[in-house]
Structures are given as structure tokens and as C-alpha cells.
Amino acid sequence: MKKSTLYDWVDEERDRLESLALDIWETPELGLHEEESSRLLRETLADEGFEIERGVGDMPTAFLATYGDGDPRIGILGEFDALPGLSQKAKPEREPIEEGAPGHGCGHNLFGTACLGGAVAIKRAIEAGDLDGTVVYCGCPAEETLVGKVFMARAGAFDDLDAAVTWHPSDLNTAQLGGSLALDSVRYSFEGEAAHAAGSPESGRSALDAVQLMNTATEYMREHISEEARVHYNVVDGGQAPNVVPAEATVWYYVRAPDRDQVERITAWLDDIAEGAATMTQTESEKRMLTGCYDFLANETVTEVIWENVEALGEIEYDDDAEAFAEKLQETFPEDRIEARLEDVPADQREAAASRSLYTEPVPPTEDNGTSGSTDVGDVSWITPTGQFRAATWALGTPAHSWQAVAADGSFGTEGMLHAAKVIAGSVHDLMADPDRLDAAREEFATVAGPDAYETPLPEGAEPPFDVTD
Predict the structure, then answer these.
(1) Which of 223, 240, 222 is nearest to 231 (CA)?
(2) CA pair distance 452, 466, nearest whole angstrom
């Protein structure tokens, strides 16, 4: 079977895929609460003959959709959660649909749908007898809070995969060889004694004082952790009135570093700091681990397969209206934003990129093109050989988690989504059709990571944190 047949199948489903992506965009839902988004994806896959397993990892919106029989088993990782406070119309100026409501500022409406398109194309190839094996669409909720794949991994959802592929919306068209940062998401709560802050302050013990001392001590800790590490925090509960000594206070920490070992060492230090702050304020401290994730380990063999498909498909073809829309979005960026982004483009492509609002020529992957953020795709990558790529669905220079990204994700970005579906279908096809490539991917994985490399970062008894995005 020619891969062009897979691409034809994606093109035939253009209207359905675009409609699905926009339906998810119009009903943005926060992590672990993506009831409508998950339902739309599940029902579409079920209509195509996929077997559906719901509630994976004790998360109602997580699911596995499976088609085929036997080996190899290739997973396609789909996401569909939105971000808080990013509601935005599909317009090139800031205008929320509903003030304060969520929005798809990371493009997961395109993300999950492109993965579905690729999975359906592979299903049809299996159905026609052109490919042997099993395709598994992994419906992964709550990536934005680094929860979904971590709890799915603990449940064994990825254990029987021979490889996994995925992608992400972006402003460049490339495969990803670089890594990401491992992470812990932890809340520290303190409990003291309430009192009148003026009438009898000696009767009180301030939980907020404990939070402030903890944060101050953390600033001194920064000098003694690696330059690549990141520690950031937010006080989520600091009391209600100045004249009441706060009896309760909570601070939420993200700890990031290039690998799990560093993250765990820094988190252990924070645990000590929390105890010290409690001692200094005569309060009680309690730690709640919300989630943790691994750094992304790119499998070079799988990534090479993906890059071959990105390169073969070439430029994403946007029309003049899309270019004009993207250009208007660029006008809302800070002056140096596009210039700074061009530094990430190879020198021989910068002039061409600077002349386009949508730069979609394939950009060769390098080990430097990772992210200083975190993703729970990292956990999957330590369980099975994993590769991912980025497709240009945004105007060049668009930052993720921005209203400009939301506007693109609800308009011209669907063209890049269809392109991504073809890359996914082509890549899975190549892994299924060429046992030698898949064997090479597994051998590389065994050498770099090994079968026992992954151990869940979740503490025993941890439950999905549904309340974090309530």
C-alpha cells in the first residue's frame, strides 16, 4: 500500500476532522473534566470500529481505543484539555468569548483530533489487509496539569506498546530530538491558630508566616541547585482578612529539573524547608503530592521515522486568508518576539522564515529543540520507544498558552492539524511495515533506558487531583 492512500483517507475526512476539532475548541474543558471532549473523540472512534476502554487510571475522561490484532502494537497519544482564563474568539485581537473562561491556548483541540485522524487512517489500512498489527489511540486527559499519562502509566496503559508517537501544535514544523524537564507538583499546607491580629496576636500562630518563611528559604536554596532547574510557587490560600491571624495557608510548588533524580532531591529539600518553617512558626505542616512526571526521552529511531515523514510531506499549504490572519496576530506581539524566535530557526532558513507569517517549511531536528517546560509524554517515553513532532499551526513567534494561540487553534490551525494527521499515519505505517526499524527502536530503548527504567513518581495511594481544576 502506498502511503499516499493514507493521506487520501485523511483528506476524505477533512470536513469531519475539522468539525470535531472546532467542536472541542468551542467547548473548552479543564483537565480531568473534559467530559464532552472525551465523549466526542470516543464516539467517533467507536463508530470506526475501535474497542473502547473507559476510565483508565481512575480518570473518567481517560480512555484507550484499540483496533487490530496482534503485534506490533503502536500507540498514538491524544490530548484534549484546555487552559484556564484563555477564552478567546477566533479573531486577531483580544476578545474573550466569556471573560475568565477556559480556552485552547495549547491547541489540544487540534492535538487530539489529528491523532484520531492518523489512527483512523491506520485502522483502514489494517482493515484492508495492507498492515498487520494493532493501533491504540490513547485518550490522555489533563496534560496541562501533568496528570493524565502519569496515572495512566501507573495503571499499565502503555506497558504493552511496541512504540508510541505523538505531536504538538507549534509555530514551526519539525521533529523533536530534545528533551523536557521532569517535574513534581506539590502543595504544602500549614495549620496554626486564629486570633485577633491586634487584640491578642500572642494567642495566634500564623500559617501564612510559615508559607512566607518557606518561600524565603526557597529563594536561598536556588543558589545551590543546578542552573537548569526551575522552582516556582503560588500562594493559593493565605487567609481572608488582615485583622485575623491566618490559621490555614497553602503554597503550591512546581519543581522542574532535567531528570527525575534531581527533581526528587530538590523536592526532598523543600520538604525539610516546610518542616523548618512549621517549627519556626509553631504550626503544623502537611504535604500533598499532586503529580510528578519524567523528562522526555526521545527515541532517535522513532524520531527519524517521524522526521522522514515530516520532510516528505513538506510545507503545510495555508491560503492567503490564513496568512493574512496570522500576520494580524503577529502585530499584537512584543517588538522583539519574532526576532527572538528566528534564533531557533537554522541560519539558512531565517531569511525565508522572516518573510512569512506562517513558516511551514520543515526545520531539521536537533538535540537543542526540546523544551524548558514539562510534559507527561515523558513518562510514556521511559516505558516504550517514543517520538514526537511539532506542526506549524500558529503564526511564527506565537507563545503557547496565549490568546493568540487560541485564535489560531479555532481558525486556520485546522489545516496544520490535517497535515499532522498525515505525519502520524505515515509514521505509524512505517513502524508497522518495517520490523527492522521497530526492532532498532526497541534495541535503542533497551540500551538507553531499559525495561525497568520507569517507576511511578506517584506516592502510594495517590488519587487523581480532580479538585485542582474544579
Answers:
(1) 222
(2) 29
The pair phi, psi for residue 92, each rounded to 5°, is -85, 25
3-class DSSP state of 334: coil
Beta bridge partners of 49: none
Are 408 and 391 spatial neighbours (Cβ–Cβ below 8 Å)? no
Which amino acid, residue 230? R
The pLDDT assigned to 5 comes to 95
Residue 236 has pLDDT above 80, yes or no: yes
Q: How far is CA 302 from CA 30, 144, 222, 289, in A?
A: 31, 24, 36, 33
pLDDT digits (tens, 9 = 90+) for 47-71: 999 999 999 999 999 999 999 999 9
* Strand duo 134-140 + 284-293: pairing: unpaired
Output the CA torsion sign for 301, 302, 303, 304.
Answer: positive
The answer to whether 382 touches 454, Cβ cutoff 8 Å, is: yes
Say if 462 falls within a structural domain.
no
pLDDT tens for each residue of 176-187:
999 999 999 999
Looking at the structure, do residues 231 and 131 belong to the same domain, yes or no? no
Residue 35: pLDDT band by 50, 70, 90 thresholds? very high
Give dist(CA 73, CA 38) in Å, integer. Answer: 22
| pLDDT at res. 469 | 78
- Mean of pLDDT over the chain: 96
Q: Is residue 456 part of a domain?
A: no
Closest CA to 31 of 77, 76, 62: 62
Task: Return the C-alpha cell found at 35.
Answer: 467530559
Contacting residues for 276 by C-beta, under 8 A, at least 6 apart: 213, 214, 217
Same structural domain, 51 and 157:
yes
Looking at the structure, do residues 124 and 254 belong to the same domain, yes or no? no
Decide if 469 is inside a domain. no
Task: With respect to residue 466, please indicate whether it lies within any of the assigned structural domains.
Answer: no
Does this model's pTM top 0.70? My answer is yes
Q: What mean pLDDT is predicted for residues 268-297?
A: 98
CA angle 196-202-204, nearest 5°? Answer: 55
At position 245, the amino acid (one-letter code) is: V
Cis peptide bond prior to 72, omega within 30° of 0: yes
